[in-house]
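Appendix B, record 7
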Amino acid sequence: MVWQDYVIAVAQIGFVIALIPTLRSKNKPPVATSFMTVVLLTVISFCMLTLHLYFSAITALAIDITWLTIGIQTLKAGKKMK
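Structure tokens (predicted):
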């Protein structure tokens, strides 16, 4: 493993922690924002896997799942796609 893998993984864990208030809040970002972020993070995670940055890929998927959850919460709240 390269040291960059660990640094990126720790930073991405910070992103997941930063999203916790959004997960718990009634105010959500637009659905389009959530799902576009999911798609792009999935691509980034795949690229990290091909570079053998396994911890980074896993933590990118964690952010991905967090954004997916936010998007689903937004849909359940009845917010329209913008």
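Remarks on this record: The chain has three helices and no strands. The radius of gyration is 14 Å.
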